[in-house]
Amino acid sequence: MENLAMFDLDGTLIDTSDLLFEGIPHVIKEFLGINVAKEEYIDLWGLDINLIFTRFAKRANKYSSRKIDAMFSFYEDWYIKNHAKYVKPYEGIREVLEFLKHDKYMKIGIVTTRTLKRANMAYDLEWGHLIDFVVGGDMVAHKKPAPDSINFAVESLNAQAGSHFFIGDNKSDILAAKSSSYKVASLGALWGAEHPADLKSENPDKVFTDPHSFYHWLASEYHG
Predict the structure, then answer these.
(1) Which of 51, 57, 135, 140 could form a disulfide with 63 if both were Cys (CB 3.0 to 4.6 A apart)?
(2) Contact status, residue 61 vs residue 87, Cβ threshold 8 Å
């Protein structure tokens, strides 16, 4: 019986805050001609990026589905080109993944709202070889906080009978884990959380202040 260790990507495995805080305003300025501060869209953090573009397109009276598609395509290209420049690894994550890799019944994966094209960039990181699977937001009908991507991971790996966990830095991650059709523990990664109080308000099964505390918990729960 296989168990799944599922991780959100941005804000959980890697720090991409600089990438996002540079990229989002850049796209909005390019297409809508307005300047925005992160405080104006931080409430949508961790959700579909198109929700942010839609908000400001409507505010500027320039909304159309074609416009949003163009903004997203531009953002996707900008993100890929600048990924290596802005992304920072979280200290301790490699040790977490290496520990889990010793468990022969455990599969390690990424479940993210990123498109698969951008999510697969994780394989190029220093710990990318430790990842067994990736589920991108464009692979399912509904992104987090819906449980579709988590359910997809479980079902595609025939792990319905397993005991799994999903860890993320946003309340949408906790909601997705809690509403899954399968046995999935909801874990909070406070080290990358923009809204830690919102995350904790969803009553995750466990929260961790940093990857090191997460590692010690894993060591007490899983023995390979």
Answers:
(1) 57
(2) no
164's tokens: 């799994």
Q: How many CB atoms lie within 10 A of CB 39?
A: 7
Distance CA(155)–CA(153), nearest Å, equals 6
Beta pairing partners, 3: 106
User: Residue 82 belongs to what H/E stretch?
Assistant: helix 65-86
DSSP assignment of 123-174: GGSTTGGG--EEE-GGGSSS-TTSSHHHHHHHHHTT-TTS-EEEEESSHHHH
**Contact by Cβ (8 Å): 34, 56:** yes
* DSSP helix/strand/coil, 109: strand
Burial class, 73, CB count within 10 angstroms (exposed 0-12 / middle 13-18 / buried 19+): exposed
Q: How many CA within 13 A on the CB side of residue 74?
A: 18
pTM score of the predicted model = 0.91
| pLDDT tens, position by position, 98-153 | 999 999 999 999 999 999 999 999 999 999 999 999 999 999 999 999 999 999 99
**23-51 mean pLDDT:** 92
End-to-end CA separation in angstroms for the chain: 13
Residues in the chain: 224
- Asked if 125 and 84 touch (Cβ cutoff 8 Å), the reply is no
CA–CA dist 124, 113 (Å, integer) = 18
DSSP β-ladder status, 3-7 and 14-15: unpaired
